[in-house]
Amino acid sequence: MHAWRRLLQFVRPHLWRMGATVALSIVAAMLDAYSFALLIPFLNALFGLPPIPVNSSLASRILEATIGAFLDPADKMGSLQNVILAILAIVTAKNTLVWLAGQFGAQLQEYVVRDLRDAVYRHLQRLPLGYFTRSRQGQLLSRVLVDTDQTKQLATELVTRAIQSSALVLSYIFLMFAISWKLSLMALVVVPVLMAALQPLLRRLRSGYRRLRNDYGEMMSVLQEVLGGIRLVKAFRAERYEDQRFLSASHTYSAGMVKVSRAAFLSQPLTEVIGTVITVFVLWMGAREVLVAGTMQGSELIGFLAVVLRLMQPLKQLSQVPAVAQGSVAAAERIFEVLDAETEEARDRGTRTVDGVRTGIAFDAVSFAYETEAVLRDVTFSAGKGHVVALVGASGAGKSTLADLIPRFHEPTAGRILLDGIDTRELTLPSLRAQVGIVSQDTVLFNDTVTANIAYGIPGKFTAAQVEAAARAANAHDFITALPQGYDTVLGDRGLRLSGGQRQRLAIARALLIDPPVLILDEATSALDTESERLVQEAIDRLLSGRTVVVIAHRLSTIAHANLILVLDRGRIVERGTHDELLARQGAYARLHALQFRDTEATAP
Predict the structure, then answer these.
(1) Do 361 and 522 touch, CB atoms closer than 8 A?
(2) Number of H helices, E strands in the chain
(3) 190 vs 210: CA distance, rounded Å
(4) Nearest-angstrom CA–CA distance, 16 and 493
(5) Is 367 exposed, middle or buried (0-12, 13-18, 19+ CB in 10 A)?
(6) What phi and psi, each to the nearest 5 degrees, are found at residue 353?
């Protein structure tokens, strides 16, 4: 029920559509029931009896008040004609209202799902970076796209089928009581019997659908990984291995779906068998009322049975609503798990803002751990304005984590990070991140134009001349103008139409355009050919000018100019100094330098 209540928050903005759907469904149901009540005067006129029974039942009084003036016992054909015309008019009006109710119901469910999908996407973007390292991309994609769409059934069952079926059931029950309250009480035994019989089934369905959603997310994760790494799959001839991974996830999902479907489809035959038993019992008792007791006319019994049989369909649909809705409830619970995750803004306690950097940044006894795994231990250093600090060390030493702490992608578990002497936790996240630019080795480009990729995230803020100036400074202008549409060329998925060096120069142009006072540079020249490396390095040299720079270094030859080099090992700074100072110490840095220099000589022509 918790998921239902929370979904109602997304229904509230569209309450008028829900109200229209409910009102139209109720009126349509009343007209539908009334059209069956007209069978009584029709059958009586057909068999030469007074069109309206002379007993004092509520049905007789309603018929007398609504259509009595159009029925003449002396004119049987005229009475039949009037009844037929009334039935046609009422059925036409009812179906028009059903169509209108369907339109409003469809709008309601689609707009509710749209708002839910938008909310999940907006919330997901604002979650801390750690949330994404703990979650598989396929699972997140499944929740944003598949689970939100699955909740559409919940709106469908609640608003369209449930409300329409409920209105029909109530209208038919009213008509049944209007004809014979005794037979109605016998017929309605079916409702509590059905509800009691379906409860164990509903509990199984809910847990089953939740497992299915997780299995689907796992299957999507495997597919997303393979498509993203298809080059690696082919290079290592891993097609059969990936076949097995996907087939295992696919078969698990299908087996779960078959198991859940077996239980879900049980609700319909169970409903129909119980309903048929009750109908036969009512038929027997009604025949006694007509033939033995004489308290009913044959036309009333036929009309009553027609309503009972007509009641079975909406009652069957209504009994299936909880079963069908269990899948949507399970999907909604997965969605609310994302929405309940705390965002960066919710964690942000900063109240101060800053505009520019005057003295630089400093780490004061900073430590960081992922849950119980310590990554950084007691890191202390400072990087003044206009200075370059390089981070070197083996893979896993903590270099990237240290850099991620500056824009507060993660929060330190101990110590302080200072920007112009202010603890960065005292600064608002937007203010802090406005001071920091990042150029990563793994360049991210989007399926958009060159201009949109350079001026990413801030369309309209920069002129075409400013974008071009940044591209020229990044040595990117020449290759951009050689593209089919120049700066308006769409780069394709992840910018794969460009070479590695071209992608890096676009990333540098992006950083140059926003002109950040603090720059984090994950050295991007290690995987480039000589000419591309030269062009990228020239652009990097322009980018470094006048900024506080933290460089994650892979090639030690590119950081000889750094003001301070920090050597990290298992999260600790084991050496610090300039390039020449560290070489003279003959320590860890000198060993790394000698190793790289030897490898360079070995591979040189």
Answers:
(1) no
(2) 26, 10
(3) 30
(4) 42
(5) middle
(6) -125, 160
**Residues whose CB falls within 8 Å of the CB of residue 459, separated by 6 or more in sequence, listed in order:** 452
Cα–Cα distance measured from residue 344 to residue 361, given in angstroms and rounded to the nearest whole number: 22
Residue with tokens 């907006």: 122
pLDDT digits (tens, 9 = 90+) for 87-125: 888 889 989 998 998 888 888 888 888 888 888 888 888
Say how far apart CA 263 and CA 207 lie, in whole Å. Answer: 12
What is the DSSP annotation of 494-550? GGTTS-HHHHHHHHHHHHHHH--SEEEEE---TTS-HHHHHHHHHHHHHHHTTSEEE
Q: d(Cα 101, Cα 247) in Å, to the nearest integer?
A: 43
Contact 76, 92 (CB under 8 A): no
Find the farthest-apart pair of alpha carbons in the chain and give their distance in angstroms, rounded: 124
Please give the model's pTM, rounded to 2 decimal places. 0.72
Mean pLDDT, rounded, for 403-425: 91
DSSP string, 442-481: S----SSBHHHHHTTT-TTSS-HHHHHHHHHHTT-HHHHH
- The Cα 441–Cα 503 span in angstroms is 10
Domains of the chain: 2-344 (1.20.1560.10), 354-435+518-527+545-605 (3.40.50.300), 443-515 (3.40.50.300)
CA distance linking residue 3 with residue 142, whole number of Å: 18
Residue 549 phi, psi (nearest 5): -120, 135
Q: Range with the lowest mean pLDDT among 6-20, 64-78, 121-135, 453-467?
A: 64-78
Rg (CA), the chain: 37
Amino acid, res. 473: A
Tell me which residue of 436, 391, 412 sits closest to 566, measured CA to CA.
391
pLDDT per residue over 443-495, tens digit each? 778 878 888 888 887 777 888 898 888 888 888 888 889 888 888 888 877 66
Q: Is the dihedral of CA 527, 531, 533, 535 positive or negative?
A: negative
Residue 539 contacts by C-beta under 8 Å, 6 or more apart in sequence?
473, 474, 475, 476, 505, 508, 509, 512
Total length of the chain: 605
